[in-house]
Amino acid sequence: MRRRKSARFVSQLTRNTMGIVMAGGRGARLHALTANRAKPATPFGGKYRIVDFSLSNCVNSDVRQILILTQYKAHTLIQHIQRGWGFLRGELGEFVEIVPAQQKLGEIWYRGTADAVCQNLDIIEQYGPEFVLVLAGDHVYKMDYGPLIAFHVENNADITVGVIQAPLSQASEFGVMTIDHDARILRFDEKPEHPEPMPGSSDTALVSMGIYVFGREFLAERLRQDCRDPDSAHDFGRNIIPGSIGAHSVYAYAFENVETQAQAYWRDVGTIDAFYAANMELVHVKPELNLYDEDWPIWTYQEQVPPAKFVLDEAGRRGTAINSLTAGGCIVSGAAIRESLLFYGVTVGEKSEVHRCVVLPKVTIGKACRLRNVVIDEGCVIPDGLVVGEDPDKDAERFYCTDQGIVLITSDKLTELGDSEPAPRGDVAAAS
Predict the structure, then answer these.
(1) What is the fold of 309-431?
(2) What is the C-alpha separation between 298 and 57, in angstroms, rounded?
(3) I want to staple 383 with a disulfide (CB 3.0 to 4.6 A). Which of 194, 220, 247, 420 is the partner?
(4) pLDDT in tens, 10-36
(5) How do 17-22 and 131-136 pair as beta strands?
(6) How far apart are CA 342 and CA 332, in angstroms?
(7) Alpha carbon of 130 to those of 66, 117, 144, 215, 220: distances in Å?
(8) How many CB atoms lie within 10 A of CB 78?
């Protein structure tokens, strides 16, 4: 059913599309990383936040009317959007607008993803887009939405769902579907306890990316119908998509690399293990997610910080970073960083060893620490001499540990340990 589409055809479609970014999730599976922030606001990749990927995909795809629906712990997310995403030109009809939950149905907050969009239909209809692109704001990927929307139009679809293959062991976290040879969806099960594999495969399932394309009028009709149903969970995956199969044309769009037709990069970073693994992939020599791609940049808000700095050159006190990413504002003073990702503003004291760690912004690591397979939350102060990642039993007594052995260090847990005062920052610390 697919054919080559002209750039003009695709650009006309994207300019008539509004993006709706669902950014209100609690992100409970990320534990303390989302204690004070919504999941889409979680830092990722050294300088970004997770929501930047969906927003960058929109802008790069020429979808430039974007609503961000927020609900839980939204302050950090709102602050990030206001600081970093105000560059679109309103006089040209371009915008990124934050739409907080407003209890438009009396005392009711958003009851589900579909209800969140339904409660804001008045805003969508005010702008009058031809198509509505509903996006999860908590996945990491690069995707041109133009071919997706063109696929939707060419198939005269009522709903198009972006899909990807996932290991059967992980499929219960997603919507799982069955399709026919024309990519029409025959069955859709949201987070089934026992997902069914794809035909011809025993260990792979076809799952939803949380990306949906609708015509505006069809979407409004379905959402208002669902809103009146007292038995509905008011959710796209549980109600809107399954309830439309058979009665309407519901299609699956396979997310593939345009050149190779191979499955493209997409990560759900909804657990500590998945978050850690996706960040650690970036330190590989040639990671699947290319952050250096000038043709598809990931836009974000950047704090104004100086370049990263590596100081001291003595045996046992040499500032080095090997197979690692270090963002601006970092000071590595006589410490060894290996296979790790340091976000901006991190300082590491002398004789410390940081191996296979993800260190979020503005962390201070003291002297003579040994840290391995660790995620350190933003703003933590690691006391001198702390050792984590060598004794699993001891780690479990002090911090949250995953089944795969990743340790999450947070300020609250450090306070329980009686952490020391922050080491001095800047050149004074570097020269000590």
Answers:
(1) UDP N-Acetylglucosamine Acyltransferase; domain 1 (2.160.10)
(2) 8
(3) 420
(4) 788 999 999 999 998 777 889 999 998
(5) parallel
(6) 10
(7) 14, 16, 18, 6, 12
(8) 16
DSSP 392: H
Longest dimension (CA), the chain: 72
Question: Domain spans of the chain?
Answer: 7-281, 309-431
pLDDT tens digits, one per residue of 108-134: 778 899 999 999 999 999 999 999 999
Angle at 28 between CA 395 and CA 233, to 5 degrees: 155
pLDDT at residue 262, as a whole number: 80
Spatial distance between the Cα atoms of 372 and 355, rounded to a whole number of angstroms: 5
**Which has the closest alpha carbon to 132: 239, 240, 51?**
240
Q: Which of 336, 317, 329 is nearest to 426 (CA)?
A: 329
Token pair in block for residue 393: 């039993």
Nearest to 16 by CA among 156, 216, 299: 216
Q: By C-alpha distance, which of 192, 150, 199, 140 is closest to 171?
A: 192
For residue 122, what are the β-bridge partners?
none
What pTM was computed for the model?
Answer: 0.91
Calpha distance 302→48 (Å, rounded): 8
CATH number for the domain running over 7-281: 3.90.550.10
184's tokens: 């029409």
Q: Crossing angle of helices 51-60/75-84, nearest 10°?
A: 30
